[in-house]
Amino acid sequence: MSDRFIPTPGRxxxxxxxxxxxxxxxxxxxxxxxxxxxxxxxxxxxxGDLLGTVIFVHGKYDNVETSWSGDxxxxxxxxxxxxxxxxxxxxxxxxxxxxxxPEAEITSSRGxxxxxxxxxxxxxxxGAKKGPVAVxxxxxxxxxxxxxxxxxxNLVHIxxxxxxxxxxxxxxxxxxxxxHSVDLIGAGDSVRKNCQTGVVDKHAGEVVEDTTPPAFKSAxxxxxxxxxxxxxxxxxxxxxxxxKVNGKEAPLIPALLRRVEAAFLRAAGKPVPESQxxxxxxxxxxxxxxxxxxxxxHHVVEHPLRSELxxxxxxxxxxxxxxLVLKSGTTRQEAVKAIQKALNKAxxxxxxxxxxxxxxxxxxxxxxxxxxNDQGRQPRLDTDGRLGAHTLLALDEALVNPSAGAAxxxxxxxxxxxxxxxQPPSKPGQYPLDTAxxxxxxxxxxxxxxxVEAPEVKNQDNRPAFWHPENIMVEYxxxxxxxxAAGSKTKYGRxxxxxxxxLVEPLTRLxxxxxxxxxxxxxxxxxxATIGSAWRTFAEDGAGFLRQLKKRLRLxxxxxxxxxxxxxxxxxxxxxxxADSARKNFIAQLGAQPGGWTPALAQKLYEMSxxxxxxxxxxxxxxxxxxxxxxxxxxVDENQNVGARFHQITTEYNxxxxxxGAGMWLAxxxxxxxxxxxxxxxxxxxxxxxxWKGTDADRGHGKAS
Length: 705
Ligand SMILES: [Zn+2]
Description:
By secondary structure, this protein is an alpha/beta fold. It is about 30% helix and about 15% strand. It folds into four domains: about 1-265, Alpha/Beta hydrolase fold, catalytic domain (Rossmann fold, 3-Layer(aba) Sandwich); about 300-410, no CATH class; about 440-535 and about 620-690, Muramoyl-pentapeptide Carboxypeptidase, domain 2, CATH 3.30.1380; about 540-610. The chain is flat and about 75 Å long.
């Protein structure tokens, strides 16, 4: 093995225009941004014959040095997430290639200052041999890589790691090229949209969707022209090697390099190994201690299938993950054989159990789908003659209830974990969720859906920013009031569900509709929704704000150094800060503390903390018109282990909670019922009632001090 630094002196300075822009544009673009680049290239290669050359292009908040050493996001405190050196991540992949990490010197927010506009010049400078080339582009790296898209026939594969921010047409043209493959990872909404409409939608049939990091469970995932991963890690976790799935290390770059290896083998005309599907699911999902006081550990996977079909590994996975469709040309013989046998049993066809998905099999599947729909089964099945997860579940149900067969309407199959017998399915409700694109996960609570993408809802209108006293509050006793019945282990008491009397009726309606839709589609996150927090005292909000002040100090040493929160000000930090004078006084006192505090640092800490938790006197919960709704959500890790837990109003769990049925439903429908979160990406569970004007709650109490 060898690694080296190759100096490449003589770069051009930034243009005056870019320098000026960088200086003035915004606070974080200080002078250091203009000159953050380092004149050189790092390379590394393992022992042995090399298959090709891999280039990693860093993003805006790094240079060649910081990315090489693993100090990712070095140039912006908001993005600074140190992790593993790139060399370690390359080595972990086992890929035999020359790895090159060049300076990209992204100096402006428009990313214009690239160093290497000529791919061949870079390869020559790094001493690369002739052969296939792959590029991993992180973030603003796309600005460099777009220069390389034409005129270089050896470039066969590009990983755009939250990176398709521009030149979408140019990248899409490159993807069209013979033998070219691309990984698309979208962390932000705009990138996701660029990927979806710019590339994915134009390549139906050539796209395989996967998780981040890719698990390669689907047939052809290693070789697909386009691998699409839209549920991401955070921007820096994508490259820093510190990504985890349910507590287990799951770095992205080594996983992506498996696709690079496939591309190199393809380019060399060598066979590419198929993806490894069918690892046995193990138990163990959430690690102990990862929650805030929760004790949920080691959940065991439970099969959504109940008939003999559950013994076929491909089918069992398919039912849990919805990642496969059996159709003409499919190579999963055991799965197809089992389906042929099941169809003969369920609808009396006489299919040969050949394991080949032939036209007779397709026709039988079509007939079965048509029958299910004719009998009103929910969800309705596409009558396309292909066997996806919903059709599989229907077939499973038909085998379990032979008397009914496909001849009777059946509720969505339930899982062994479910406790109560299900109501027959209702007609699509008034506030329906479409589960067609969702994974149906069997958890210890029963079925919970996991959707692919959560809608983003924000609201600043009609927020109930006032206070009412405890003595007028009443206990909520409507649907979802009882946390024990919901299965929550958190000790929510009567005190956690005190609301203003005017909220009783609208909250009852909200919870009733949420739970009703949960019954219809069979989703435990919705059925088990329960009130976790409602009216709060100043003292409760104050204690939370103090915790947040300390947390922000701890998490931002680049800003605050080793400052700690002064014990002398803890009481003030927890006091009612509604009045301007109270706030100003608190910040001024903090700024005057000895040991390195300044007014600017005090102001900064206050502003940062406030984004995560409102101080006493400034939380809308104090109105009695706001509730936080707790509910369980489910996740699945790279080994297809399924875990579920209540989110417990914990910020770190918001991203996953949003994707559960309850999260999706609240974001989609709550506004029609008069409720909204101020920001679903921040707190999906936080429901503010917005129709209080003219009610008893609208009395201009203002804030008590
Ligand atoms: Zn809240």
